[in-house]
Design a protein that fits this description.
13 strands, alpha+beta, about 20% helix, 5-stranded antiparallel beta sheet, about 210 residues, Immunoglobulin-like, 4-stranded antiparallel beta sheet
Amino acid sequence: MSRNPLKLSRRQLFLLAGSAARVATAAEDFWDAKPATEWSVAEIYQLMNRSPWAKPVRGFLPPEKHPQTFGSRRLSKAPLPESGPQGVVTWESSQPIRDARKTPLPSVFTDCYVIGVDGVPLGGASTDKLKMTAALHSRGRVRWTVRPQVVYELVRTSTVYAIGFSRAAAPIGLGKEEIMFEAQFERWLVESKFEPQKMLYHGQLAV
């Protein structure tokens, strides 16, 4: 007697959903499916705005700026947190981003991981202040924090603040650790999370 293919157990549906998700994910990885010279404008936009190497962000006020807020509970008379400017944090030194931009980074970033922040203004603050507040953190078994070696303004259609961290001081591998980036732009704090195990380009870690 044949089995109705529509009558599947919950476990089978779960496994099918997982398989479909993996197929969909693989289909989206155009950066591995074809050479950079064949990437479309839409694909390049996706890579540089929402991908393992690019994260949308919104600036927010640090906790001390909200004296009426305690932990995760907001007191009844406390104002809602003020929304900051929106931007994108990009791992500029990664090979897929370089292939998309088709230009090298300035030589000042030799031997550096480079994080770019686009869309969040520095305001009246200086790049020296940005250099003091920016950091990369590892949240893996081996925890470390690295401060920038250099901050540089890249002028494109808008100003991108490129922040260079010593590769030797930040041992990033293919483990399950998360890499957190943070920096303060005048009054706004920006944070972004990267997952190295997802930052693969043609089978190699690309950071």
